[in-house]
Amino acid sequence: MTAPHETGDEHAPTTVAPDADTIREWLVTQVAARTGVPTSEVDVDQFLDEFQLDSTEALVLAGELENWLGVEVSPTALWYHPTIARLARHLAASGIGNDAGT
Amino acid sequence: MTPAPDTRPLLRQLARGPAERRAALIHPGGLPATHYRPLAAALAAHGTPYLVDLDALPQFVFAARHGGDTDLSGLVDTVTEVLDAHHLLDQRTTLGGWSGGGTLACAIATGLPPPRRPGRLVLLDSLPPWSGTGADSIEDTAALLPEFGRYLAARAGVPAPDPGAIRPAPPPGQEQANSHDQWLWGFRQAALAVGALDEGVGLPGLRKVFQSYRWGLLRNRRLGSGAAPGAVTMPTTLIRARDSIIPDDDVPGWRAVPHLRTVVVPGNHYTMLTEPASVELISAELAEDTPAVRDPLRLGPR
């Protein structure tokens, strides 16, 4: 697995609420880096658990996403919105909201 | 509510084996279900192994993501129903589980009328349902990190970090970080040294994994609450890992069970399912034919 970064909280939170495209691009970059595949091969409509990401790695990704967004992401957001495209749309539409399944 | 995307079955047959004897194991998540492959292979010579995967239940998964405050009162009924639907509730079945799965298995067995009770219970490093071990025991970050290290190491298939090497350290540029973060950062270094963590895991990601691990423990310690030791009437074996997760002060909780014996197997809580010597001993217990009580049950030395 490729290291996208190596230290603590160096991913500064975004200063403005990102739109769905920006969130999708960030997720694609992260998944590509963690699975070692080119970003062009990351299918945004594929279930996240179908990438070579186990549950621990998915939690790591969620933690890094929170750090980047600067807000807590609902712990169950990845369950209800299990693809990159759906998760990005959900987070953007809810103003980076925390209500899973809504 | 949006349908859950995870469509894995709650109960699955792990391997083909003689149909007249069955072992049904309850898996509480944490480790991938693939960790049962060695055990399933060994069991198939004696009977048919089944796995109840609690990660197929949204309320179970969510309980580890919401601080363990999800209502789990229906879990016993849900698992009982699926075992019933597969005609696995009778004397021909050995019911068991690893960790919290064993705790739930115990609670399920005690709630069944005698004709539908399993012939034996085999519990793999499980806390008793009545142990009362709650949040207090897992609130201390520093105290929990060695076990967290064993968990991550088992997942990665590497040796566990040396507990002595886990020391607090400030993350880069964060000399004033709180104690929790300093312990996590120090832990990260110890885990990286043995390959239990990937270099790509930063502090935010590690916080999330640790939080979920802690909440998962809290959830699992609430499983089966309400069961009483006197109701465990079937022969029961508690298999403890040599490096067990069960605190010594929980052992008396098991002592109250009639017809209990203990077996100690090599490895720790997370490797006992895959270490060959441990698998051999566990499969022998699960495959044992006669529900005879052999010793008046002493909890053996560790």
From TrEMBL, chain A:
Residues 18-95 form the Carrier domain. Pfam families: PP-binding. PROSITE patterns: CARRIER (PS50075). Gene3D superfamilies: ACP-like (1.10.1200.10). Keywords: Phosphopantetheine, Phosphoprotein. This is Acyl carrier protein.
TrEMBL record, chain B:
Gene3D superfamilies: alpha/beta hydrolase. It comes from the Bacteria. Residues 28-286 form the Thioesterase TesA-like domain. This is Pimeloyl-ACP methyl ester carboxylesterase.
